[in-house]
From TrEMBL:
Annotated ranges, domain Formyl transferase C-terminal: 167-247
Pfam families: Formyl_trans_C, Formyl_trans_N
Gene3D superfamilies: 3.40.50.12230
Family matches, as InterPro entries: Formyl_trans_C, Formyl_transf_N, Formyl_transf_N_sf, Formyl_transferase-like_C_sf
Native organism taxonomy: Bacteria, Pseudomonadati, Bacteroidota, Bacteroidia, Bacteroidales
Cellular component GO terms, alphabetical: cytosol
GO molecular function, one term: methionyl-tRNA formyltransferase activity
Organism for this UniProt entry: Bacteroides uniformis
Keywords on record: Transferase
Residues covered by the Formyl transferase N-terminal domain: 42-129
Transmembrane segments: none
Name used for this protein in its record: Methionyl-tRNA formyltransferase
Domain of life: Bacteria
């Protein structure tokens, strides 16, 4: 088992099951040397939500290596693809099982499963859907490996898109965006992700859910302005309408007339 050093659940499972586990960055022959030291040999390699791109020193050890990627490749190669799909307003996402190479998510496609992104879906609920699909999909791919019956389709490189690693600092809301993008931005990054955020003065506000409002405003009012607070829920002006902050974390009391900004 190879995993990153922060996946406590995987590490704990390996300990319970007495499975050998490499933790950390596998590059620069680190994992390869560990495999040799542990006298580990294998025919098949399966990668699911692994943080690192495996290099040839690992891939060449397997007869068949398959990665399970959380997008409909060749779209959304890279990190947290389902989050980017929600941010970009996509109506569907999915899982692609594909042969692995030393390049990022570019191997031939073995199978794809399409998943609808519903109106209330978040980054967290899409992960739950994925987790419900992975076991049967893995079993199916392993069976195909064992009987030597894997057929593939090449990815169309002209349609490939790439998205990079996100950090907590990337969650800042631009209140000059339209309300639809802000809503997608927020729901893509809800718990367990760090969350979309802004500031009132120097105090940070983390926002977990918003909804649209028909509350009125004057067009010259700055975007991010708190138009009203109704039942403890601030209504905030955006470029093309108002939104209600339905669920948020903030240490103080939000008042009408304050302005949310990302600093």
């Amino acid at each position: 088992m190879l995993t990153d050093s922060h996946s406590d659940g995987i590490v704990g499972y390996c300990e319970q099951q007495s499975l050998k586990c490499f933790k950390g960055n596998p590059r620069c022959l680190k994992a390869s040397n560990w495999l040799d030291d542990q006298l580990i040999r294998f025919d098949y390699l399966l990668s699911i939500n692994y943080l690192f791109i495996l290099e040839e020193d690992i891939l060449e050890r397997a007869h068949v290596a398959v990665n399970f990627h959380g997008s409909l490749l060749p779209k959304y190669r890279g990190r947290t693809p389902h989050v980017w799909a929600i941010i970009n307003g996509e109506k569907e996402c999915g899982i692609t099982a594909h042969l692995m190479s030393a390049e990022c998510d570019d191997g031939d496609i073995v199978k794809q499963i399409h998943i609808q992104i519903e109106y209330e879906d978040t980054g967290a609920t899409i992960l739950e859907k994925y987790n419900g699909i992975y076991p049967n999909l893995v079993d199916e791919i392993v069976t195909l490996m064992e009987i030597g019956n894997i057929s593939t389709t090449k990815q169309d490189i002209t349609k490939a898109t790439y998205y990079g690693k996100r950090t907590p600092e990337d969650g800042g809301i631009n209140w000059d965006w339209q309300k639809e993008r802000i809503r997608n931005w927020v729901r893509a990054q809800v718990r367990p992700y760090p969350g979309a955020f802004s500031h009132i003065g120097s105090e940070k506000i983390t926002i977990h859910k918003v909804s649209y409002s028909d509350y009125g405003f004057i067009d010259i009012t700055p975007n991010g302005s708190v138009l009203a607070v109704i039942e403890s829920k601030p209504i905030v002006k955006t470029q093309n309408g108002a939104i209600v902050l339905e669920d948020y974390e903030y240490v103080g009391t939000i008042k009408e007339g304050q302005i949310l900004k990302t600093i």
